[in-house]
Amino acid sequence: MTQAPPAPHPVLARPEALFARPRFLGSGLIALHLPVLFWLCAERVPRRALVAGVGDGMAHFALCQALEAGGSCTGYGTWAEAGGHVPAALRAHEELHHDRVSHLQARASAEAVLAAVAEEGAADLLLVDLAALGADVDADLAGLLAGLAPGGLLVLHGTRDRRWQDRLDGLAGQAGGQARHLALATGLGLWIVTRRGDTGPAGLERLFALAEGGDLPEAETRIFAQVGQGLLALAEAQAARDDRDRAEVTTLRETLDRLRAVHDRELAEMTVITEELHVALAARDAAADMPSDVSADGPPEASPQAVPPQATPQATPLASPQAETAPAAEPTADLAADLAGARAEAADLRAQLDGMRNSRA
User: CB-side exposure of 328: number of CA atoms within 13 Å?
Assistant: First the structure.
């Protein structure tokens, strides 16, 4: 269901950016924070973005979509489940929608991902998905923040994992408070971090002015949370529809396989019936062509004794065509009955298939 944008907010500028519809949407928890990413890009308008820990690709492609007017986004991931390569689905979406903006690259480990991001140099926005990288990786968050371009934003996803808490606390209070952050507790948690000496866009600066210890006021937190939850609900509904469609396709394929099996059985039975009819017709033709003084079993053997004149030999009667074909009548009737049953089953399956198509339509 389409959500109506809220009325102009005295603090939160550009609220329409929160309602951007991602082209690439799944049911992962990072979907809760895609509206925040769209809003940050509308505020900061980054020219160069980096992603460390692309994972399912939703956040990376949201940034690509926000930057398609003019910018680039390079994303690094490990994708062990895909053999250490960029998954085919992500590569296909990149080539179809973001071939000039997106640059996906695979690395062997989370440490290699962070090293590659550090080598990239200054970025206007760096998204580090801590949940995708794993809590065991040794991430120098302060170093990543220091490497940003002037006014750059460091966005951290997965901040509610307690295994990151010490490093996050160190980042928030590093060097006498040189860093400042905004914290969103929705889902796995999100931090927006800047260097304290940098001046950000006006809308973001107003949020920093309202935040106490990094926590946003309840009203602004509720806006981000509700929009994110609406997007996640949309993603879950789409996933449910996709699952239902896949189940229907599987059922249709199974029904078609059964129809093919019935057709093959009918064809085989018709072949048997045809062969039996050919045999019966051949026997009838052979009986019709046989001489009248010769039985169907061949010429009679000569008698060793002369036949008395008064004895009249009895001719062996020819078998009628009906008698020759009689033995085939019973199996033919059985096969015909089986064939009728198979046709009835095929008709029933076709009716089921039509019903499924009508219900889907």
Answer: 18
